[in-house]
Design brief:
The chain is built from 4 helices and 12 strands. It has about 210 residues and is α+β, with helices and mostly antiparallel strands. The longest helix has 18 residues. It is globular.
Amino acid sequence: MTAAAEQKALIRARLDPLESFRPAEPARRSDFDLNPGWSGERPRPLREAAVLVPLVEREEGLSVLLTRRADTLTSHAGQIAFPGGRLDPGETPWAAALREAEEEIGLDPSLVEVAGLSSSYETGTGFHVTPVVGFVRPGFEVRPREAEVADVFETPFAFLMDAANHERRFYDLPDGGRRWFYAVPYQERVIWGATAGMVRCLWERLQCEAA
């Protein structure tokens, strides 16, 4: 088995299989993990969503396909994100993740091999997000939907899975409170908030299981 095949096998082994998904289960991780005093302000009910964590199989190693949200959006404008969005009624997270990736950046679902599910994540804005990890064959053409996506780029998977690159940052609120969040600076960009939180969750799965 090649090193690339071994890495893919390891990642698959650390993820939850699709059949284990239970829509009623609470999120395993959240924006509130670093802010326990914030727990009383959680929006209810949570809106179901999914993101695709696209691991592109490059010759030099895996890379992660990420987007920068359009500056004109009403929420999370300009932030780095995985392709994704809300689930349609009766839709599975993996179907939604593939659909949203095709709609947002033109990623052909036939080029994506779904590997499994990472830890579900609750955002401070009231979403219950299921991260769907998939291996992407090279050769795809990116076609960003201008109304939603300003940019599409790749970040080395090894860089994101290096805990030395995971920073804890904060911002102060007008009422004197403080909100903590994960951030992963890469070149001129900063991956932060829920996206960085989900990166951290995936790292924890790989690290803890391998320990």
